[in-house]
Each structure stands twice: as structure tokens, then as C-alpha cells.
């Protein structure tokens, strides 16, 4: 099936707007890529507010990060990190990087998200690990995340932000929304006496429920051990 490129470019702009509306980044923060059937990628432009993109601003690059279309917009400075995800995972078709406040606070305070406290976060994210710090836009950052990609679709990037991936753009975006919601609830619960956590039996039941009722492509740390 061929890709509807105009629709995908519009969808990237819509997600940039939703991320900006939700405060998932300041100024020019964040980037999105989508892998197309021909092996090229759509990519947000660097150094622009992702809340105010128009489809003509979306770049098209190859698997080395080089532009394949004439454009006055330059691709994101974080394309290496995105390309690393596609190299590690042939099931992934979209990657979202953002700096959502609660997820970023966890990433900056050195706190991975490990508490099992809500059905949705347990079923759809499991745990969210904290990957080591790497200098933005360099191979350091790709090297830092690579070991985690086999088991996780959502990562906290130490002292930086968050990254999610999915079999399509909506699924990568939903994981970013779910990740920040999970981080927010964990943070607020910690101010309010601490969350009640599920016991291992309840976690097992939720994972079984996910497998039965909500099977979805992607990786889950309690299933892909
Ligand atoms: P770009 O504008 O180059 O995509 O960079 C934004 C960002 O969030 C870097 O981590």
C-alpha cells in the first residue's frame, strides 16, 4: 500500500500542535519522524516551534539523514536518534521525541517509572526505563538508548526528555501522552501520601488482559523479557 504523504505530513503537524498545546516542550523542543514504505522518512524541521508547523515544512530524508527533497527547511537535529530506533526495530514506523514536563522531571531527577499503579500504564507501558545521558544530536544519544529498544516503546532520556515509538504515528503519539500522564500521576501521588501499588498477582492479571483484549504491535517489558 502506498503512503498518503500529504495526510501524513498533516498528521505530523497536528501532533506537533497537540504536543505544544499540552506543554510537552518549550520554544523549538521536540521532533517527529515517520518511516515510509519506500524507506525514506518524513521528519519535522529543526529549530522551529512544533506547535505551528504547516505540511510544507515537513522534510523528507533517507536512512542516512540526508534530505531527498529540495526544501528551505532543514531536518531535525535529532534524526540520528530517530534512525537508531528504526535500525533497532523493524516493526517501528513512527518516533516521537518531546520534553513533557512530568516525564522530564522524572528524567532529570534520575527516576525511572517503575510503580504499577494504574491498569492503563501497566498494560500499555509496563515500566519506563531511564536511559543514560547522551549529548543531544550525537551518536552518544543513540548509543545510550539502543540497549533499551528491544523491550520498550517508551523511554525517559536522562536530563533531557522522553522518546516513544510505535507501528504508526498515532500509536507513537499515544505512548507519549500515556507516558506523561503516568509520570504526572506518580508525581502527584508522591505529594499525597504515596501511591498504592498493585501486587504482582494483579500485574500478571493486567498483562494477561492486555494480551487477550488489547493485543497491539510493539514491545512491553513484562512480555518481551
Ligand atoms: P530540533 O528542532 O532540531 O528537532 O531539536 C529539538 C529538540 O528537542 C532537541 O532535543
Structure, described:
This protein has helices at 5-21, 79-88, 101-108, 119-124, 139-145, 169-190, 200-213, and strands at 31-35, 41-43, 59-61, 94-98, 130-131, 154-157, 161-166. The chain is of the alpha+beta class. It has a single domain, classed as Class II aldolase/adducin N-terminal domain (L-fuculose-1-phosphate Aldolase, 3-Layer(aba) Sandwich). α5 (139-145) links the parallel β5 and β6. The longest helix is centred in the last third of the chain and has 22 residues, at 169-190. It is globular, with a radius of gyration of 17 Å. The model has no long low-confidence stretch (mean pLDDT 97). 1,3-dihydroxyacetonephosphate (13P) is lined by residues 28-31, 44, 46-47, 76-78, 136.
Helix/strand layout:
Layout: H1 5-21, E1 31-35, E2 41-43, E3 59-61, H2 79-88, E4 94-98, H3 101-108, H4 119-124, E5 130-131, H5 139-145, E6 154-157, E7 161-166, H6 169-190, H7 200-213
Parallel strand pairs: 5-6
Antiparallel strand pairs: 1-2, 1-4, 2-3, 4-7, 6-7
Helix pairs in contact: 2-5, 3-6
The protein binds 1,3-dihydroxyacetonephosphate (13P).
Keywords: Lyase, Metal-binding
GO molecular function, one term: metal ion binding
GO cellular component, one term: cytosol
Based on the model shown, name its key terms.
metal ion binding, L-fuculose-phosphate aldolase, L-fuculose-1-phosphate Aldolase, lyase, alpha+beta, metal-binding, 37% helix, EC 4.1.2.17
Amino acid at each position: 500500500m502506498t503512503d498518503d504523504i500529504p495526510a501524513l505530513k498533516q498528521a505530523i503537524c497536528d501532533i506537533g500542535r497537540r504536543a505544544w498545546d499540552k506543554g510537552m516542550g518549550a520554544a523549538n523542543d521536540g521532533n517527529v519522524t515517520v518511516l515510509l514504505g519506500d524507506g525514506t522518512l518524513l521528519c519535522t524541521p529543526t529549530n522551529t516551534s512544533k506547535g505551528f508547523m504547516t505540511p510544507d515544512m515537513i522534510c523528507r530524508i533517507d536512512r542516512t539523514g540526508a534530505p531527498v527533497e529540495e526544501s528551505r527547511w532543514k531536518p531535525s537535529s535529532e534524526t540520528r536518534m530517530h534512525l537508531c530506533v528504526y535500525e533497532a526495530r523493524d516493526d517501528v514506523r513512527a518516533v516521537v521525541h518531546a520534553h513533557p514536563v512530568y516525564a522530564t522531571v522524572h528524567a532529570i531527577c534520575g527516576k525511572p517509572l517503575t510503580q504499577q499503579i494504574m491498569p492503563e500504564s501497566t498494560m500499555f507501558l509496563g515500566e519506563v526505563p531511564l536511559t543514560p545521558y547522551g549529548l543531544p544530536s550525537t551518536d552518544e544519544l543513540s548509543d545510550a538508548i539502543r540497549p533499551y529498544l528491544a523491550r520498550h516503546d517508551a523511554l525517559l532520556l536522562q536530563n533531557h526528555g522522553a522518546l516513544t515509538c510505535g507501528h504508526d504515528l498515532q500509536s507513537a503519539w499515544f505512548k507519549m501522552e500515556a507516558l506523561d500522564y503516568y509520570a504526572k500521576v506518580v508525581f502527584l501521588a508522591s505529594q499525597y501520601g504515596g501511591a498504592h501499588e498493585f501486587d504482582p498477582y494483579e500485574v500478571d492479571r493486567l498483562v494477561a488482559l492486555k494480551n487477550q483484549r488489547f493485543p497491539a504491535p510493539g514491545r512491553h517489558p513484562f512480555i518481551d523479557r
